[in-house]
Fold this sequence. Notes:
Elements: E1 2-7, E2 12-18, H1 33-37, E3 44-45, E4 55-58, E5 71-74, E6 80-85, E7 89-94, E8 99-104, H2 106-111, H3 113-123, E9 130-133, H4 146-156, E10 161-163, E11 169-171, H5 173-183, E12 189-191, H6 204-207, E13 213-221
Parallel strand pairs: 3-6, 4-5, 9-12
Antiparallel strand pairs: 1-2, 2-13, 5-8, 6-13, 7-8, 7-9, 10-11
Helix pairs in contact: 4-5
Amino acid sequence: MRFRRVPAGANAVAEIAFTDRDDGDFHVDRADSDLRHEVFDGSWTWLRQVHGSRVAVVDHPGARAGDEADASVTGSFGAVLCVQTADCVPVVLVGDGVVGVAHAGWRGIVEGVIPNVVEAVAALGGGSPTAMIGPCIRATSYAFGEADLALVEAAVGGPVRSTTACGMLALDMVAATSRALAAAGVGHIDDLGIDTADEMYFSHRVRSDEGRQITAVRMVSS
């Protein structure tokens, strides 16, 4: 498990956690409160992700848990937000007194989950947030069709194509997510550089894993 702490305004800090395979399976139908509390204490908002663009606005710890959405935001101290991934891009947003998290698969990017979550942070008074990209599939393992690639490039406004380790056409999900974030007004993007093709992580694409790691964030007093 990896942890980060990022300033979130004058009197707040965002605490961020990225799990791996050794921390357990956080699939929404298998994870329980004991497993989640090994990461962060408190009430969690977990989501039933549908590869869409809906954002759950969490007004108190534990609110909107189980909603069908692919992102959540909060200005409440102690509220734990999370997304489950096994190749899609987890994005943490840290604004002024506001935090958010998004599950950015290619379909969600096309649907507009990134601008929607950035707009939701701003709507809560968080201004223009910074972003952190967690464990996700990298282009070397992500062969992709030309037609779907064109949809992604149209959505993010520029080229995001690459090649796999075998020389096949690939989608660079980090480039696509970064383009979408920049277009939405995010000025600073920190990519942790973690590839879910690594056996430390669950990967649906590389190993057909059914398990999920999580990216979780909560805001606490500094």
